[in-house]
């Protein structure tokens, strides 16, 4: 019976130690620190794809300068 109580106390000890991992500031800290970063990355990706398509369609084939 003492070993069961010791195991329960150990489980409770680790449960209390891991409570900080479920805190809202830990999981979403980067998202709250950089609002709009995801939208900016998507917009920049669309810009890069559009620029590559434009260069492929409208740049003369003899022009190899970057």
UniProtKB/TrEMBL annotation:
Extract the Pfam families matched here: NDUF_B12 (PF08122)
Going by the entry's taxonomy, the superkingdom of the source organism is recorded as Eukaryota
User: From what organism does this protein derive?
Assistant: Urochloa decumbens
- Protein name as it appears in the record: NADH dehydrogenase [ubiquinone] 1 beta subcomplex subunit 3-B
UniProt lists the family membership as follows: Belongs to the complex I NDUFB3 subunit family.
Report the subcellular localization. Mitochondrion inner membrane
Q: Which PANTHER family match?
A: NADH DEHYDROGENASE [UBIQUINONE] 1 BETA SUBCOMPLEX SUBUNIT 3, NADH-UBIQUINONE OXIDOREDUCTASE B12 SUBUNIT
**Which GO CC terms are listed, alphabetically?**
mitochondrial inner membrane
The principal location of this protein is mitochondrion
- Where exactly are the transmembrane stretches of this chain? 32-50
Q: Topology in the membrane? A: Single-pass membrane protein
Function of the protein = Accessory subunit of the mitochondrial membrane respiratory chain NADH dehydrogenase (Complex I), that is believed not to be involved in catalysis. Complex I functions in the transfer of electrons from NADH to the respiratory chain. The immediate electron acceptor for the enzyme is believed to be ubiquinone.
Entries under InterPro entries matching the protein: NDUFB3
Which UniProt keywords are present, listed alphabetically?
Electron transport, Membrane, Mitochondrion, Mitochondrion inner membrane, Respiratory chain, Transmembrane, Transmembrane helix, Transport
